[in-house]
């Protein structure tokens, strides 16, 4: 099993990069584990307390469970990936079964911040993008998908997203084997990554 970690700032284009890599590979050979599914369950908090959750801090992720699931996948087991809602800040009762595949992509803003998780990755990728471009994507996503107002998004960005990016996420570039500038728009870099993965699959 080839484990690929894909990190990068919020709104950097990680999802687009993952989608394009998957499209370039044999359909049944890839599964994706999203870091976002492993946010700690905060459904017990009040609406006001939920607004103060720092989703960009490593402590918000249940890394032990994520690592346990990756280890189980490597052993050939199917795992129950949690389902997390940003609106309720809670995990759903149902889970998503993920079967072991030849290529496992682990993606999320914080996946390179955890040393134990990094140790399990065969290829580490950092998706880079201009700060203004990331902010525009964050505004659109948080309003459309997370039910936040425009001012809520800007406050959240100023208080959490930007400082956490500078403190925790941007420094993980140094752990990356490959840095993809311009996010999902960098087709050349994505083609190189996909080609390397195909080569690994052929050598198995």
The count of domains is 1
Low-confidence stretches: none
Q: Which outline best applies?
A: globular
Number of helices: 7
What's the N-to-C terminus distance? 9 Å
- The succession of helices and strands, N to C, reads EHEHHEEEHEHHEH
**In which order are the strands of the major sheet placed?**
2-5-1-6-7
CATH fold call: Rossmann fold
CATH class: Alpha Beta
Which percent range describes the beta-strand content?
Answer: 15-25%
Q: How would you classify the helix and strand content by structural class? A: alpha/beta
Largest sheet: 5 strands, parallel
Helix content: 40-55%
CATH superfamily: P-loop containing nucleotide triphosphate hydrolases
Mean pLDDT: 91
Radius of gyration: 17 Å
Strands, count: 7
CATH architecture: 3-Layer(aba) Sandwich
Task: Describe the structure in your own words.
- The protein is α/β, with parallel strands linked by helices and 204 residues long.
- It has one domain: P-loop containing nucleotide triphosphate hydrolases (Rossmann fold), CATH 3.40.50.300.
- Helices cover 41% and strands 20% of the residues.
- It is built from seven helices and seven strands.
- The strands form two sheets. A five-stranded parallel sheet has the order 2-5-1-6-7, with helices on one face. Strands 3-4 form a two-stranded antiparallel ribbon.
- Strand 3 (79-85) and strand 4 (90-98) form a beta hairpin.
- Helix 1 crosses helix 7 and helix 5 (131-145) packs across helix 6 (150-169).
- The longest helix has 20 residues, at 150-169.
- The protein is globular.
- 34% of the residues are buried.
């Amino acid at each position: 099993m080839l484990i690929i970690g894909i990190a990068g700032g919020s709104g950097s284009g990680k999802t687009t990069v993952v989608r394009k890599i998957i499209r370039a590979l044999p359909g049944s050979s890839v599964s994706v584990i999203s870091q976002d599914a492993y946010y700690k369950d905060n459904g017990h908090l009040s609406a006001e307390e939920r607004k103060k959750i720092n989703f960009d801090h490593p402590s918000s992720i249940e890394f032990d469970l994520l690592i346990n699931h990756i280890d189980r996948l490597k052993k050939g087991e199917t795992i129950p990936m949690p389902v997390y809602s940003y609106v309720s800040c809670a995990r759903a009762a149902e889970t998503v079964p993920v079967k072991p595949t030849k290529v496992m992509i682990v993606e999320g803003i914080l996946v390179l911040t955890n040393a134990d998780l990094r140790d399990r990755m065969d290829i580490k990728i950092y998706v880079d993008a201009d700060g203004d471009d990331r902010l525009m994507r964050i505004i659109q996503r948080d309003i459309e998908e997370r039910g936040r107002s425009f001012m809520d998004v800007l406050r959240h960005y100023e208080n959490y997203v930007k400082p956490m990016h500078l403190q925790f996420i941007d420094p993980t570039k140094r752990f990356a084997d490959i840095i993809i500038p311009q996010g999902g728009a960098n087709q050349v870099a994505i083609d190189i990554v996909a080609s390397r993965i195909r080569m690994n699959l052929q050598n198995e």
